[in-house]
Amino acid sequence: MNYLMGLCVGTSSIKALLANTKGKVIGTSEVKYGIDSPHPGWTEQKPETWFNSSVKAVRDILDFSAINPDDIISLGVSGQAHSTVFLDKEYKVIRPAPLWNDQRTIDECRELKEIIGEKEILKLTSNNVTTSFSLTKILWLRNNEPENFKKLAWICLSKDYIKLKLSGKLSTDPSDAATTLCYDVKNYRWSTELMDRLKLDPLILPEVEPSDKFSAKISKKASFETGLPEGLPILTGATDTSGEMLGNGVYRDGQALVILGTGGVFLVYHSNYYKSKGILDMFRYPDGKYYSLGVTLSSSASLMWGLNNLGLDLKSTEKKVAKNIKHLDFKKYVDSNKFKILDSEISGILPGSNGLIFLPYLAGERAPHADPDAQGVLFGLNLQHDKRYILRSIMEGVAFSQRDCIEVVKKEGFKIEEIIISGGGAKNKIWCQMFSDIFNSRIIKMSTEEGPSLGMCMLGAVSLGIYGSIEEASKRFLKIENIYTPDERNTEIYDKLYEVYHDLYFDLRKTFAKIQNFKKSFSI
Predict the structure, then answer these.
(1) Tens digits of per-residue pLDDT, 189-222?
(2) What secondary structure, in 3-state letters, does 124-155 show?
(3) Given a cut of 70, is residue 348 above it in pLDDT?
(4) Do residues 121 and 110 touch, judged by C-beta distance below 8 A?
(5) 161 and 18 both lie in a single domain
(6) For 65, which of 21, 242, 253, 520 is 20 to 30 Å away at the CA?
(7) Residue 324 above 70 pLDDT?
(8) 24/99 same-domain check
């Protein structure tokens, strides 16, 4: 039996998945890590941590599965987009990588708009300027760490770094290249014109190769470190978002995906290029077509903020578990069952949270409001509200933020015929039902929980000719776990509440800027 392996460099962990060529998942592994925030608004990680975690994840899955590593015939890596690695001429990391949700480049965004202009950038790249894109991070390095900028020979994205360490070869793919804001999405090439106008050397940009091409091989050194066979073919790979789409069976027009990860993403596949207004990002899909997306910066992160700061009512939970359960075992039980406990807490709270509305702008916002000054808000708080209402309103607010994105998608002319939901937050059934009610749409949950890693296995299988297309591979690898249908009464309530939610950002936009200026004035 032959096997396929997929890796995903996530924001909070590395995930590995091993599947056989018939579509059966043999095993998964995960190695978690943290995010460094040395200054307010900064988020960064050491690329070396990604690689060391990848090595452990691969070792763990090989040990668990007990397969012969020589039977693995494909490795694919996906990874968090935008998170930018700065390398010197010897491929050594210069400094920690600013992540996709890093907000330090506000001044560089203004610089880009002043030097090039928003319309011109949109024309050259098919995307608008936000703090997420790598180009703003390159400018930040030049403006703030000139000594490090002098060392800069290459940039790459998270999955590219893993492939570099595994093979010694540096390259990227069109999906990740598009997330740099240095790439001409329409014409499939780096925008050397943009780089020249910014007086940046285009040679710092790596070679772009197709996502489904086996562009590298496991080196002897990496084979010793990981246990994978020397010479194992490695795909160029893709962004985590497009990998998630692949791993959830999104491959045709009319399909869309909601990802409930640290951030929230609404993605729509389209086979034809369209003239973007810049509200949605537009990237290349691994099959050479396109996908557009709206990214909200604090999705499951908002809920985890609520759980970490408000906590769960564990008294009733303690009564349900054995009296002799050890303290550490109870903590482990709570951690692994937090969504079930949360469901029991909020199930008695009616839709709409008694008029309490949450704006999930805990790290600024990106779509549809590209506003790093935006702040989290609890609106409508009164004496009747306790933490149950707050937790439910957080979940509803995150779903409303994704509805903001779907409304933009519809205005752009896309027809949405099928919506699939994925990500860690999609394990919560009440949350999935909220999305169905708030979208007024049927929502499908696939059985897989490791979409990007599975997507890389599927892409490898297609590239090897085992399956003729992603559609054919999807029929073998994927199964529907649940289908959520909207409740008419709940949808009516949420439609009314969404009107208020939608207006709140515009009512508070100037106030957000004032608060940020206040913080800067007093170094808060």
Answers:
(1) 999 999 999 999 999 999 999 999 999 999 999 9
(2) HHCCCCCCCCHHHHHHHHHHHCHHHHHHCCEE
(3) yes
(4) no
(5) yes
(6) 242
(7) no
(8) yes
- Predicted local distance difference test score (pLDDT) of residue 315: 54
Gap between the Cα atoms of 166 and 221, Å rounded: 8
Would 472 be classed as within a structural domain? no
Of residues 333 and 119, more confidence is placed in 119
Strands (E), 146-232: 154-157, 171-172, 183-184, 189-190, 207-208, 214-217
Residue 221 counted as domain residue: yes
Same domain, 319 and 226: no
Structural domains in the chain (count): 2
Closest to 513 (Cα-Cα) out of 114, 100, 106, 131? 106
Same domain, 41 and 162: yes
* 224-247: average pLDDT: 98
Task: State the first-to-last Cα distance of the chain, in angstroms, to the nearest integer.
Answer: 59
12 alpha-carbon distance from chain centroid? 11
Under a CB-based contact definition with an 8 Å cutoff, are residues 18 and 25 in contact? yes
Domain that holds residue 139: 3-247
Q: What is the DSSP string of 459-520?
A: HHHHHTTSSSSHHHHHHHH--EEEEE---HHHHHHHHHHHHHHHHHHHHHHHHHHHHHHHHH
* Average pLDDT score over residue span 361-385: 93
Q: How far apart are CA 356 and CA 385, in angstroms?
A: 8
Q: Give every CB contact of residue 126 below 8 A, 6+ residues apart in sequence.
A: 178, 184, 185, 186, 273, 276, 282
User: Which residue is it, tokens 């993605």?
Assistant: 267
Residues 303, 234 share a domain: no
Question: What tokens appear for 437 in the block?
Answer: 């009610």
Q: Dihedrals φ, ψ of 264, to 5°?
A: -110, 145
Give the three-state DSSP class for 27.
strand
**Which pLDDT value is given to residue 161?**
98
146 lies in some domain: yes
Residues 48 and 118 in one domain: yes
51-73 pLDDT per residue, tens: 999 999 999 999 999 999 999 99
Q: In the numeric block, which tokens belong to residue 461? A: 């299988």
pTM over 0.90: yes
**Could you give the CA distance from residue 270 to residue 251 in angstroms, rounded to a whole number?**
9
Q: What CA–CA distance (Å, rounded) separates 235 from 217? A: 9
| Residues 15 and 155 occupy one common structural domain | yes
pLDDT for res 343:
87
Whether residue 260 lies inside any domain: the answer is no
- Candidate from 87-101, 336-350, 365-379 with smallest mean pLDDT: 336-350
> In the structure, what pLDDT confidence band is assigned to residue 261 with cuts at 50, 70 and 90?
confident
Are 81 and 221 contained in the same domain? yes
Q: Which residue has tokens 């306790």?
A: 386
Indicate which CATH number applies to the domain containing 99: 3.30.420.40
Taking alpha carbons only, the member of 177, 128, 113 closest to residue 276 is: 128
Whole-number pLDDT of residue 339: 79
